Amino acid sequence: MLSNTQKLRILRARTDHDLLVVVSRELDRGLALVDSATSRNSPVFAQAVKAHGTATALLPRITGVSDDDRKRIESKAAELWSRLERVPQYANMRPFRASVAS
């Protein structure tokens, strides 16, 4: 029979694993979204920023993660942030000629 301490350790390990999956998926989602953002004003950009924020907020709460996994996740978060910074402030807009009907 498992003691309460052992049960808590098992539960914590499962929670850490689940949080790691959530963080990884959020970063993957953010990376997919940022590629389709045309400007920082777009809703897609806002969703990518939110995904980055969620992932970086959850990462410090995961205690049972290996150094390799932590480095991989931190690298993915840095890549997402780098791509977010490269999104232009405004969409590229071409001037158009106004024509007047006569």
**What proportion of the residues is helical, as a percent range?**
55-70%
> What structural class do you assign from the helix and strand content?
mainly alpha
Total number of domains: 1
Which value, in Å, is the CA radius of gyration?
A: 21 Å
**Gap between N and C termini, in Å?**
91 Å
Approximate shape: elongated
Describe the structure.
- It is a single chain.
- This protein has 102 residues and is mainly α.
- The chain has one domain (10-86).
- It is built from 3 helices and no strands.
- The protein has helices at 4-34, 43-58, 67-86.
Draw up the topology in text.
Blueprint: H1 4-34, H2 43-58, H3 67-86
Helix pairs in contact: 1-2, 1-3, 2-3
Quick recap of the structure?
The chain is 66% helix and 0% strand.
List key phrases describing it.
0% strand, 102 residues, elongated, mainly alpha
